[in-house]
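As a next step, the fold was encoded as tokens, giving this record:
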Amino acid sequence: MDPFPAPGAGPGPVGTWLLRDLPETIETATASLDPQDCDRMEPDAVMVDGTGGLDEETRSTLAAVPCAVQDARWLTPDQQIRLVAVASLITAAARLLAEDPGTAITTGELSRMWALLNHAIA
């Protein structure tokens, strides 16, 4: 039995999620990236973990991609890994911005990450 049936084998609920919800989440995530939302100390000495601009729902959706693509058997392995790469890179970009936005921007780390993202999409 072929673990990756040919495209068009019927996407079902996972396919709907991948085709509709995931692209919207990726668009929201890339538009929401915010270097101002970094890890910080509040005036009352409470440490606050920054999110790089991503809300919990967006982070949760991106984190579900590696599991969801396993059920997307109509996608080729190449398509599956590209989806995982895109979700991972966007999540990593937010984490970089949350932890050290100045370094991420000035050293070119973020630019390299976007180059990888462009490659994964192409």
Remarks:
- The beta strands are 40-41, 47-48.
